[in-house]
Specification:
Elements lengths: L8 H17 L4 H32 L3 H5 L1
Helix pairs in contact: 1-2
């Protein structure tokens, strides 16, 4: 993944949804399913990183409770 261009949240989410659909269909071999699962784990991590970053930006833009009390 290091060499791969960083995916946007939407790209990672959409690819993850496709993987879930493929796994749920049950048509993949065990080897294919394991590869899909591993890719899904990587995509879920990318999505979580995007969400954590967004949460941090929102938290940083809010005034702290101490500042509001003054």
């Amino acid at each position: 993944m290091a060499a791969e261009k960083k995916l946007s949240y939407e790209q990672a989410r959409d690819e993850l949804a496709e993987i879930v659909e493929s796994l749920e269909s049950g048509s993949a071999t065990l080897e294919e399913s394991l590869a899909l699962w591993e890719r899904g784990e990587a995509l879920a991590k990318i999505c979580q990183e995007w969400l954590d970053g967004a949460k941090a930006k929102i938290a940083a833009s809010r005034p702290t409770q101490e500042a509001e009390a003054e």
